[in-house]
Amino acid sequence: MIVSMTLELKDIPGQLVLALAPVSELHGNIMSVVHQHEEKTPRGTIPVQVTFEIDQGVLDELIEKLEKSGVGVARVGEERLRSSTSVVLIGHIIHSDIGDTIDRIDSTGFAEVVDLSLSMPAIEKTSSAYLVINAEGEKELKNALEILREVAIKKDMLMIEPIKHNSKAA
Amino acid sequence: MKTVRLSLIGFGAVGQGVAQAILQKKEILKRQGIDLCVVGISDSKGSEINVKGIDLKSALERKKQKGTVAKSNDSALDIIRDVEHQIVVEATPTNIKNGEPGLSNMSAAFNSGRHVVTSNKGPLALCFLQLKETAEDNGVFFRYEATVGGAVPIFNLIHESLAGNRVIGIEGILNGTTNYILTRMTQERLPYELVLKEAQELGIAETDPTYDVEGIDSACKLVILANSVFREAATYRDVKVTGITKITPEALELASKNNYVVKLICEAGNGTLIVAPRLVPKKHPLAVGGTLNVASILTDLAGRITISGKGAGSIETASSILSDILYIVRNS
Fold first, then answer.
1. Per-residue pLDDT tens for B58-84?
2. A2-78: which CATH topology?
C-alpha cells in the first residue's frame, strides 16, 4: 500500500534521518519527502510529509519504532488514488444518464470521478460538464480515460482531454 | 548581379502578397546582388508573360481593378513549360480532393527542371513523397515553408536550425481561424454560431468554414509535417480529426474556472496523427490567443522548442515564400 504520513520532528540536527531510517529498515520505498523547515507547529516541532510504499502488515511496527525514537506521528493516511486528470464533456449529459457515465469509471475499482461541475444553459441545448478523475496510477488513469472515451462515443458526447503528458515538459 | 527568373502561378491573396514583398524588397535584395525577375503571372482567367520582367506594380493594379491579371489566354502550364525561368511559385488554392491544379503545376515544373516554392497544401497532403521524389529525380529544390503555420518558420527551424536532432513529437495550433473563434468564445462567452459569423465578417473565416472548423485544414498541415519531419508516408486519411463545432461557451467557462483554455491541437509523434480540441493549461506555451499559430517541437538534443507567430495573411505568408525563394537562390 501507499502511505502518506505527517511526522513531527524536533528542531535539532539529525532528526530527518532518524525519521526515515525505520521506513527503509522495514523495506519501505520512499516516494517523496516534503520538509517544511519554516513552518513550525505550536509545539515547536517541524512537520514533514512523507509518502512511501510499504507492506500493510508492518505499518503498526513502523509507527511504534518512530514514536520510540522520539518522532511524532501526527497523521497516517492511505494514498490510494495518486494520478489525476480533468476532462470536459459536451452533449446531452443528463439525458444520457450522468449517473451511469460516472458509474462506468467508479465501478472499475481503480479510478473514481472525484469532482463534477455542470452547466445547463437551456432545456433543449447541449450541456457541458467538467470532471476530475483520480486513479491509482498513470496506467489506470489511461484505462479510465479509454472507458470514458467509449462511453462518450456511444452517448454522442464530445470529450475534451488535456494535451498529452509529454507536453508538461514545456 | 545574380538574376533569378520566376513565375507566380496563382494570383490570389498569397500570389499578390509575394508580388508586393518582391517589390518592397527589390532594392535591398539588389544590394545583396540578387535580382528577382517575375517573367510570368497566371490566375484563373489568364496570364501575363514578359521575359524581360513584369511590372509588378501595374500587374497588382490591374488585378485590383479588373479582378484578373490576364493579358493573354496562356495557361499556367504554358508558362511553366514554355517560358524560360528557374523558380515556380505555386500559390493556387488548396484542393484537398485531388490536389488540382496545384499537383499538375508542380509536376510540370519539376519535369521542366524548375524549382518549386509553394503555399498550396492540397498536393502535399495527398502526394508528398511522390512530389519530393520527382523533385529529387530532376535535381531541383522543393520548398513549402508557407504551407504550414503561415509566417512561422517551422520547416526551416526543424531542418536547418535543429539539424542533427531527432524530433520526438510535435504539438501545435496550426489554424488561426479556429483559434480566433475559440479565443472569442472564451472571452465574450458567446455561442459558436455567433462568433463564426463575426469571424466571417472580419474575413478571418471563409464563407464556407468547413475546412477550418471541422479540423480539415489542421489535418492537412499535420500530414505535411509528418511527411517532412518523420518521413512517414501519411495522407489526410491517416489523421484522427475532431473539429470545434460542438464546443459550447459553457464548456469553455468551466475549463477556464479550472485554469484551462480549449485549443484545437495538432499532435504528431509515436506514429499517430491527431487533431482534436484539448484542454491546455492557461500558462502553457501552447496557450496562444487570437489568430496566432504555435508549434512546440520536442527533440532529443535540444529538448523542447516552441515558436509562435502569424499563421495567415497575404504578406505574412509571402514572408515564408520569399524566404524559400532566397534559400534556393543562395544554394543553387
1. 999 999 999 999 999 999 999 999 999
2. Alpha-Beta Plaits (3.30.70)
Whether B221 sits among the annotated catalytic residues: the reply is: yes
Q: Does one domain contain both B187 and B140?
A: no
CATH fold of the domain at A83-169? Alpha-Beta Plaits (3.30.70)
Mutation target among A132, A159, A164 for the B interface, most CBs of B within 10 A: A164
- Taking CA–CA distances from B305, the nearest residue in chain A reads A170
Task: Check CB contact under 8 Å for A128 and B169.
Answer: no
Whether A167 and B242 lie within 8 Å, measured CB to CB: no
> How do the domains of chain A map onto residue ranges?
2-78, 83-169
pLDDT at B270 over 90: no
Is A94 an interface residue toward B (CB < 8 Å)? no
The mean per-residue pLDDT over the stretch B47-63 comes to 97
Q: Does B289 lie in the same domain as B245? A: yes
C-alpha to C-alpha distances, B273 to B126, B166, B317, nearest whole angstrom: 15, 18, 25
Of A160, A166, A170, which is closest to B278 when you measure between CB atoms? A160
Give ipTM to 2 decimals: 0.85
Contact A88 B280 (CB under 8 A): no
CB under 8 A, 24+ apart: contacts of B103-109: B103/B127, B103/B131, B104/B77, B105/B9, B105/B76, B105/B77, B105/B80, B106/B131, B106/B134, B106/B142, B107/B131, B107/B134, B108/B77, B108/B80, B108/B81, B109/B80, B109/B140
B59: containing domain: 2-151+314-331
Task: Say what the pTM is.
Answer: 0.84
Domains: count for chain B? 2
pLDDT tens digit string along B100-123?
999 999 999 999 999 999 999 999
Spatial CA neighbour of B91 closest among B22, B24, B34, B7 = B7
Same domain, B298 and B322: no
In a shared domain, residues B107 and B11: yes
Among the listed residues B63, B121, B221, B263, the single catalytic one is B221
Q: Chain B interface, mutation test: which of A160, A161, A164, most B Cβ atoms within 10 Å?
A: A160
Determine what percent of chain B is predicted with pLDDT higher than 70. 100
